Amino acid sequence: MTMRAYVALGSNQGDPQARVLAAFDALHALPQTTMQRRSSLYRTPPWGVTDQPDFINAVAELETALPPQALMQALLEVELLAGRTREGRRWGPRTLDLDLLVYGEREIDEPHLTVPHPRIAERAFVLLPLSELASALHIPGRGRVDALLEKVDASACKRLASPT
Fold it and tell me: Is 97 known to be catalytic?
């Protein structure tokens, strides 16, 4: 059985746009997984720790037979291959950040995996590209993407490129 999953991508180190585009390719190559669609790229201001470069953000829609824990492990491996290390400040600069946002209608609360992503409703840099792919998507326990997007300030997020 396959499941629809949404993954947020972000980078603000090196060549962030190239890193996000390469991450799309890596997601497409995951076992038992097909990337259905990808959002445009967005330049967004940093969130949390603001004294760092802007980010390039996007969202990928996946169809996957991987269980959520295995998918999350695969995302961590893609980050590692892109040079991501987890030392340093929380919400600080990063070569690549991949977050599992939604996994079907599942709600998961485990030590190393929370789905839907716990801060999804607060982040314009996630909701904007997600709404491009699935504005009517109901996020379990949170509401529809389009309604959540209306509640955040997305004015500083700038669309850069359409999906190809």
Answer: yes
What pLDDT digit, counting tens, does each position of 108-157 carry?
A: 999 889 999 999 999 999 999 999 999 999 999 999 999 999 999 999 99
Query: pLDDT per residue over 51-71, tens digit each?
Result: 789 999 999 999 999 999 999
Is residue 94 annotated as part of the catalytic site, yes or no? yes
How far is CA 53 from its chain centroid?
Answer: 18
Q: Which of 97, 109, 119, 142 is catalytic?
A: 97
CB 159 within 8 A of CB 42: yes
| Distance between CA atoms of residues 130 and 116, nearest Å | 13
Active site residue 84: yes
Answer yes or no: CATH 3.30.70.560 is held by domain 3-161: yes
Q: Report the 10 Å Cβ neighbour count for 97.
A: 21
Other CB atoms within a 10 A radius of the CB of residue 53 amount to 13
Of 19, 38, 43, 99, catalytic:
99
In angstroms, what CA-CA distances link 108 with 2, 40, 117?
Answer: 17, 28, 9
